[in-house]
C-alpha cells in the first residue's frame, strides 16, 4: 500500500510517500481502508520531533481517518466488511498510523458510522472532539452564554464555533485577517473580530454591552494570554489548550491579583485531551454525540483543501504558512 513514512524528524521534506506492506488484521483486529484522512496539528509536532507522545521511528504519522472495513481478523464480531467507520489514534496504543491507504486496529478502536455517513466530514472529528471537551468538560458552557474563540479559522477553532452555536452559545470568532473574518462570518459565527485591524478588547466590550464574555478558548498561549482576563464577565473562565506562541507567562498571576480579573472572580484553566487518555468512557461519550450530530447533518466541517495523500508535505507547509482556513484532508 501507499503511505507516508517518517524515518527522521525535521521540516516537511522528511515526509516520504512510499510503498509499505499492507497490514493484515490479526485476531481481534479489523483492517480499515481509508477514504479520507484528516490532517491535524499534532502530526506537525510528530514530524518535528517535539510531540511528548512521539511514536518510535520509522512510523506512519496521522491521528485520524474515515473509511470502510476491508477485512476482519479472527474472532471479530462488532463489525462487518463494508461498514463505514472512523478511526482516531486516541483509541490506539500509539498516536500514529493514519497517513496510509490501510490501517489495522483492535476491534474496540473504530467508531461505527451510519451506512450513509459523510466520510469526508467524519475524517475531521478529532478537531470536533477537542472542541466538544473544551466547551462541555473543561468549561461546562451553558446555552445563553458567550464564548470568544481564538484561532477560529483553524480546523479546531472552526469546529468550536460550530459546536458553540449548536449548544446555544453566542460564538465570537477571533481571526487574523479580513479573508478569515469573511470566511468565519459566512460559516455562522455570530460575531467576528479581526485582531490585525481591530481592538479586540473594545470589540468584546461592544458586543457584550460591557459585560464581557463568559468563556475564552485560546491555543496560542504566551504573554498575551493574560489580556483575555480583562475581557471576561463575572465568574468567567479563560481556557488555554495550546502553546502556538509559547508557554503561559507569569503575568497571569498579576492579572488575577488585581483589577477586573480579581473583581470578577475570574478562572483560568489548562486543558489537554491527554487528561482523557485513561478515560475511554468519557471519550466515547463525546464521540458518540458527535457521530449523532454528523448523522443529523449538524456537523459541517470547514474544509480548506482536499489533497492527494502523496501531497502530505504540501499540507504541512500550508498549515505552517498559516494559509489554511478550516481543515485540510488527504485522499489516498
Structure description:
The protein has 332 residues and is an alpha/beta fold. It has two domains: 2-124 and 301-331, Quinone Oxidoreductase, Chain A, domain 1 (Alpha-Beta Complex), CATH 3.90.180; 126-273, Rossmann fold (3-Layer(aba) Sandwich), CATH 3.40.50.720. It is built from ten helices and 15 strands. It has helices at 41-48, 119-122, 125-138, 155-166, 178-187, 200-207, 251-257, 259-263, 280-295, 312-320, and strands spanning 2-6, 15-19, 29-39, 64-72, 84-88, 102-106, 111-112, 146-149, 170-175, 191-194, 213-218, 232-240, 267-270, 303-308, 327-331. Strands 3, 4, 5, 6, 7, 14 and 15 form a seven-stranded mixed beta sheet that branches. A hairpin with an 8-residue loop joins strand 1 (2-6) and strand 2. The model has no long low-confidence stretch (mean pLDDT 97).
Quaternary state reads: single chain
Q: Outline, from the CA principal axes?
A: globular
User: What is the number of beta strands?
Assistant: 15
Identify low-pLDDT runs.
Answer: none
What's the CATH topology name of the largest domain?
Answer: Quinone Oxidoreductase, Chain A, domain 1
Q: What structural class is derived from the secondary structure elements? A: alpha/beta
Specify Rg, calculated over alpha carbons: 20 Å
Mean pLDDT: 97
- CATH architecture assignment of the largest domain: Alpha-Beta Complex
What is the CA–CA distance across the termini? Answer: 10 Å
The CATH homologous superfamily of the largest domain is named Medium-chain alcohol dehydrogenases, catalytic domain
Q: What string gives the helices and strands in order?
A: EEEHEEEEHHEHEHEHEEHHEHEHE
* Percentage of residues in strands: 25-35%
Instruction: Give the helix proportion (percent range).
Output: 25-40%
Number of H/I helices: 10
Largest sheet, described in full?
Answer: 7 strands, mixed
Amino acid at each position: 500500500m501507499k503511505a507516508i513514512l517518517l524515518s527522521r524528524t525535521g521540516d516537511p521534506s522528511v515526509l516520504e510517500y512510499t510503498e509499505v506492506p499492507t497490514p493484515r488484521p490479526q485476531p481481534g483486529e479489523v483492517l480499515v481502508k481509508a477514504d479520507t484522512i484528516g490532517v491535524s496539528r499534532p502530526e506537525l509536532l510528530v514530524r518535528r520531533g517535539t510531540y511528548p507522545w512521539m511514536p518510535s521511528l520509522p512510523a506512519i504519522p496521522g491521528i485520524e481517518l474515515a473509511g470502510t472495513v476491508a477485512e476482519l481478523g479472527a474472532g471479530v464480531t462488532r463489525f462487518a466488511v463494508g461498514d463505514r467507520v472512523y478511526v482516531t489514534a486516541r483509541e490506539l496504543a500509539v498516536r500514529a498510523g493514519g497517513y496510509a491507504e490501510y490501517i489495522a486496529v483492535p476491534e474496540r478502536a473504530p467508531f461505527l458510522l451510519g451506512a450513509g455517513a459523510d466520510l469526508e466530514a467524519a475524517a475531521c472529528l478529532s478537531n470536533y472532539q477537542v472542541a466538544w471537551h473544551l466547551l462541555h468538560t473543561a468549561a461546562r458552557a451553558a446555552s445563553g452564554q458567550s464564548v470568544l474563540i481564538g484561532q477560529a479559522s483553524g480546523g479546531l477553532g472552526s469546529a468550536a464555533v460550530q459546536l458553540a452555536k449548536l449548544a446555544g452559545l453566542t460564538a465570537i470568532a477571533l481571526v487574523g485577517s479580513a479573508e478569515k473574518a469573511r470566511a468565519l462570518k459566512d460559516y455562522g459565527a455570530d460575531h467576528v473580530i479581526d485582531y490585525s485591524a481591530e481592538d479586540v478588547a473594545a470589540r468584546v466590550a461592544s458586543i457584550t454591552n460591557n459585560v464581557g464574555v463568559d468563556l475564552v478558548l485560546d491555543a496560542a498561549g504566551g504573554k498575551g494570554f493574560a489580556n483575555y482576563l480583562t475581557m471576561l464577565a463575572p465568574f468567567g473562565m479563560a481556557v488555554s489548550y495550546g502553546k502556538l506562541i509559547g508557554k503561559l507567562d507569569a503575568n497571569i498571576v498579576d492579572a488575577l491579583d488585581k483589577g477586573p480579573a480579581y473583581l470578577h472572580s475570574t478562572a483560568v484553566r489548562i486543558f489537554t485531551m491527554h487528561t482523557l487518555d485513561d478515560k475511554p468512557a468519557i471519550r466515547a461519550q463525546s464521540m458518540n454525540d458527535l457521530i449523532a450530530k454528523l448523522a443529523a447533518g449538524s456537523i459541517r466541517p470547514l474544509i480548506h483543501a482536499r489533497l492527494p495523500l502523496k501531497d502530505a508535505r504540501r499540507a504541512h507547509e500550508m498549515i505552517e504558512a498559516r494559509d489554511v482556513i478550516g481543515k485540510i484532508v488527504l485522499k489516498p
